[in-house]
């Protein structure tokens, strides 16, 4: 699961910075997913240690009478633009010293290599699968690590156009296993109707300033 909306009035790429919590809407998203999963056989809930992920996991864990575990492997991707706004004008791209970080989108040159994200994320998923063996687990993480892990599972290339990621706020990317074998990948958006209009695919409106969309969150 990707975490819910974050309170980020200045629109920075918060990355792994501490102190970024769910907004009121983000808490509603987390509650919505908890209700959506109420009838599922969830026995293990684990999240990235960042506040927004822990807060998203909390109502799901409470719904199933378990505590939220933490796994550093579910962390957001490292990014050199962390703590900055991203874009032209008053964003990071205005500074020529930052351009060197945009030379290789295939790695990517601005942050943690895609394959390294996949390795740690698959480790976390495998560990959660084993803890919840015979039942279901919920792992709460962040957009980019979730997306590249899905791409890997579906045997797609890891480099991509960030605008085309299918991983909205509070969405569920589901891995189904038979024994140790991954047999299917699914995707759903239980909180779709709560998404701000500029984040709904096909909505004809400008993007707002609630965070770093291009590099995940």
UniProtKB/TrEMBL annotation:
Residues 198-217 are annotated as: Disordered. SMART domains: PGAM (SM00855). InterPro entries: His_Pase_superF_clade-1, His_PPase_superfam, PGM_Phosphatase. Pfam families: His_Phos_1. One of its GO terms (cellular component) is cytoplasm. CDD domains: HP_PGM_like (cd07067). This is Phosphoglycerate mutase. It comes from Wenjunlia vitaminophila. The lineage of its organism: Bacteria, Bacillati, Actinomycetota, Actinomycetes, Kitasatosporales.
